[in-house]
Amino acid sequence: MTIPDRGALLYEGKGKKVYETTDPDLVRVVFKDDATAFNAQKRGTIVGKGVVNAAVTAELMRVVQEAGVETHFVERIAPDEHLVRKLKIVPVEVIVRNRAAGSFARRYGVEDGLDLNPIVVEWCLKSDELGDPPMNDATAVALGFATEEQLHGLFEGAAAVNDALIPYLEERGLDLIDFKLEFGEAPDGTLLLGDEISPDTCRFWDASTGERLDKDRFRFDLGEVEAAYQTVAARIAPEVAL
Questions:
Q1: Model pLDDT for residues 48-85, shown as the tens digit of each residue
Q2: Which of 121, 141, 188, 209 has a CA between 20 and 30 Å from the CA of residue 171?
Q3: What single DSSP character describes residue 26?
Q4: 7 in the Ramachandran plot: left (φ > 0), alpha (ψ -120 to 50) or beta?
């Protein structure tokens, strides 16, 4: 397809820049090397992160699309850039937890890595200013953040993403501990998976050693941050690995 020209900057977030294009239904997303944690209270740079996240997201979007999940992803048009469908983001972040880790483990006083059966799906309000507070269905609907129909779509979509990613990642020696998803509505009202699927938004642990290969290495000063991202790239998108 013909790639529409990049226009004005529409939005700059913690990890990406979004530009309008000459096609009103499409935007161009550039992935940054900037890193943040704890709702942007900690900031830094992870060299090569933008390219890794763009490549890994492109591949994992392909995986979930083949499993029947509709996404905003159209094409990776540069090492660190995607062409995607424009969405009106639903301000409800979906967190899928296969094993206890991070704030969830601390919240309930359980060990990191505890298997969760059934898996846990949680909602959080997408708001750095408020610290992404958790909420239940009634809160999300009562405050107008989502409709009951949208919440049903978020749950079904997130479960389908999880079902598609787990076996794919297992074949590459990665355990999918938990991950965050964002969804949005296309102009015709269709609910699509948006944002990214990367070491920034997922906890990936090495299946053999338990080594953490994601943004937790930056969050908690574990060292070898760039090496962890490159390890994930080598297993999912080897063409970009250094």
A1: 999 999 999 999 999 999 999 999 999 999 999 999 99
A2: 121
A3: E
A4: beta
Matching fold, domains 6-85 and 88-223: no
Domain boundaries, the chain: 6-85, 88-223
Q: Give the E-state strand segments of the chain in sequence order.
A: 6-12, 16-21, 26-31, 34-37, 42-45, 73-78, 81-85, 88-89, 92-99, 115-125, 134-135, 174-181, 183-185, 191-193, 202-206
Does pLDDT of 242 surpass 70?
no
Is residue 164 within 8 A of residue 228, CB to CB? The reply is: no
Confidence at residue 128, expressed as pLDDT on a 0 to 100 scale: 87
Core vs surface per residue 57-93: b (16+ CB within 10 A) or e: bbbbbebbeeeebbbbbbebbeebbbbbbbbeebbbb
pLDDT digits (tens, 9 = 90+) for 131-151: 999 999 999 999 999 999 999
Confirm if 154 and 90 have CB atoms less than 8 A apart: yes
Top-level class of domain 88-223: alpha beta
The sign of the dihedral angle between the CA atoms of 108, 114, 115, 120 is positive
d(CA 154, CA 173): 28
Tens-place pLDDT, residues 163-173: 999 999 999 99
Q: Is 217 helix (H, G, I), strand (E, B) or coil?
A: helix
Which phi-psi region, left, alpha or beta, contains residue 92 (left: φ > 0; alpha: ψ -120 to 50)?
Answer: beta
DSSP structural state of residue 210: -
Spelled out in words, what is the top-level CATH class assigned to the domain 6-85?
alpha beta
pLDDT digits (tens, 9 = 90+) for 215-232: 999 999 999 999 999 999
